[in-house]
Structures are given as structure tokens and as C-alpha cells.
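[Discussion] Sanity-checking designs against the backbone

I'm trying to build intuition for which residues belong where. Below is a C-alpha cell string of 307 positions. I'd appreciate it if someone posts a full sequence so I can compare it with mine line by line.
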């Protein structure tokens, strides 16, 4: 009993000493783990190209809209770091995520949205194909392989900086122009450009499934379930970038993916979710399908939302 009492005295003295030193600024506060969220803010990061920056539109970008909607849904402040860059390619993004300021944003991120790839495949302005020859496969396949590799590297960096963040990979409705502008370029442009876009989206969806990320099908909201919807009214005059209504549809798609995966509900129940092992990561087997991606994403949010 005495030994027990004696062992407590040094500890009590140490605590008092630390409190005194902290009070005079000689000891730094204990660092939080990156995802040990408090009620102050939930951090969202956007990575990508000009669609994510909101280029050309005097309106809120879709990442800003997602942030505002999350704010009303999860019952806590939500902040956005929009690190998207106009004209960025996937290769550019690989370099960007290694920059100290971007890494700093990622380390505190709960949700990371990535929309990249359109600038990897500039289309022929008259035909809508990815190559100047009639055979798109001649140059499309290696470009798609490069996009896949870059996306995998980006997600790996995100997971390394923020192991339990939910990563949402967005596809495209068209990697070129669409709507009236596309139809004005000839009868084949829209068909060809959407075919290239489908191939890009397949790569993005595949990487999402393989990495435990969420795939956000934006083509479904802008083009409709069967592809027959005209997106002209949701695009700016250039036919390339979304306007306010288009950004709202993109935000709808992100929120739907978060909700359907269970991530949104878990974030909403943040105060009552029990902590899991912060050193754990979703099992590889949970990343092999869209359902597995949802499970992996929800596991990340479950840790994120714990105290």
C-alpha cells in the first residue's frame, strides 16, 4: 500500500510540473492525431482541375456547395481547402500533393474530393476523338494507363497523409464540351467525346474500387440515367464548365455518394461513435468492389468521427 502511495507522488509532481510549464509556454500542448476531430471543424479538401475551382462562374464552386451541405448535415462546422488548379492534369496533381501546403491540408482532412483526368486527354476539336487518327486505341490506351497510375499515386499520398479520410473520386459527364456547343461541332463529336469520357470514367471507377475510395458518378446527374438528358442549361457558354445549376448537380452527386456509402450518416453521428484502432486500415478485401469501397470509406469515417 505504501509503495503504491509512493509511486503516485512523482506522477502527481510531474503533472503539476507540466501544467506549470505549459502555463508559462515552455511546453507545447500535446499534439492531436491528425483525425482526432473536435467540435471546431471538419476539414474538406478538394483536388482537381478547373471544374473544382469553379472556373468562369460567378457562383459557388461545387466543393463550396458540398461544404455548405455537409455543414447542415453533420451538426458541426465544416471548412474547405480548395487546392484545385485550372488546367491541371493527373501528372500535375501527383506533383501537387507532395507540396508542403497541400500535405498540411490533407493531414487534417476528413473528406477529400478528387476530380482529375479531363486535361489528360485533349480531344480533337472537330471529331471529339482523343487521337488525330481514326483509331482512338492507338493513343487512348497508354493515356488511360498513365491516368490510372497517377490516380493510384495520388490516392496513396492522400491515404499516407490522412489514413482514415474518405476519398471521393469524381468522374466526368464529358472530358470535352457538351450540350449545344458539342452538337455545333458536327454529328460525331458528341458520340466520340462521350465514348472517350466513358473510358476515362471506367479508369476512375476502377481506381476507386481498388483503393477503398468512393466513385461519384456525375454523368448520371448531368446526362441522366440513360444519357439522354441535355446538360446545356447546366453549362457555361463555353460548353465545358458547369454553371451554378451544374455545380449544384455535382454537389448532389457527391452528397449522394457519401450518403449511400454510410459515410454521411456516420459523420452525422460523430458524437456517439466509438473509437476504433487509429492504426488500423480497411482490409484489402474490402476494396475489391463498390460495396467494399463503401465499407472501407465508412470505416475511415468511423475513426474520423471518434473522439
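Best answer:
Here's mine. Compare freely.
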Amino acid at each position: 500500500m505504501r509503495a503504491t502511495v509512493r509511486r503516485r507522488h512523482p506522477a502527481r509532481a510531474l503533472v503539476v510540473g507540466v501544467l506549470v510549464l505549459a502555463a508559462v509556454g515552455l511546453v507545447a500542448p500535446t499534439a492531436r492525431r491528425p483525425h482526432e476531430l473536435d467540435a471546431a471543424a471538419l476539414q474538406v479538401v478538394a483536388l482537381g482541375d478547373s471544374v473544382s475551382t469553379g472556373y468562369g462562374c460567378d457562383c459557388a464552386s461545387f466543393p463550396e456547395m458540398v461544404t455548405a451541405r455537409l455543414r447542415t448535415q453533420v451538426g458541426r462546422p465544416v471548412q474547405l481547402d480548395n487546392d484545385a488548379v485550372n488546367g491541371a492534369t493527373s501528372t500535375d496533381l501527383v506533383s501537387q500533393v507532395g507540396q508542403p501546403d497541400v500535405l498540411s491540408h490533407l493531414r487534417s482532412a476528413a473528406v477529400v474530393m478528387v476530380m482529375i483526368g479531363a486535361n489528360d486527354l485533349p480531344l480533337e476539336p472537330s471529331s471529339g476523338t482523343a487521337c488525330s487518327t481514326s483509331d482512338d486505341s492507338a493513343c487512348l490506351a497508354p493515356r488511360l494507363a498513365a491516368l490510372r497510375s497517377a490516380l493510384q499515386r495520388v490516392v496513396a499520398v492522400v491515404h499516407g497523409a490522412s489514413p482514415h479520410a474518405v476519398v471521393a473520386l469524381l468522374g466526368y459527364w464529358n472530358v470535352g464540351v457538351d450540350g449545344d456547343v458539342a452538337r455545333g461541332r458536327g454529328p460525331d463529336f458528341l458520340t466520340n467525346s462521350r465514348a472517350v469520357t466513358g473510358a476515362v470514367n471506367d479508369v476512375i471507377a476502377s481506381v476507386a474500387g481498388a483503393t477503398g475510395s468512393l466513385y461519384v458518378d456525375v454523368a448520371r446527374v448531368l446526362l441522366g440515367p440513360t444519357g439522354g438528358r441535355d446538360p446545356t442549361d447546366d453549362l457555361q457558354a463555353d460548353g465545358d464548365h458547369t454553371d451554378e445549376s451544374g455545380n449544384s448537380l455535382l454537389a448532389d452527386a457527391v452528397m449522394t455518394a457519401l450518403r449511400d456509402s454510410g459515410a454521411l450518416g456516420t459523420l452525422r453521428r460523430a458524437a456517439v461513435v466509438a473509437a476504433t484502432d487509429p492504426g488500423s486500415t480497411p482490409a484489402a478485401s474490402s476494396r475489391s468492389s463498390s460495396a467494399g469501397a463503401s465499407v472501407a470509406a465508412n470505416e475511415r469515417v468511423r475513426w474520423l468521427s471518434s473522439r
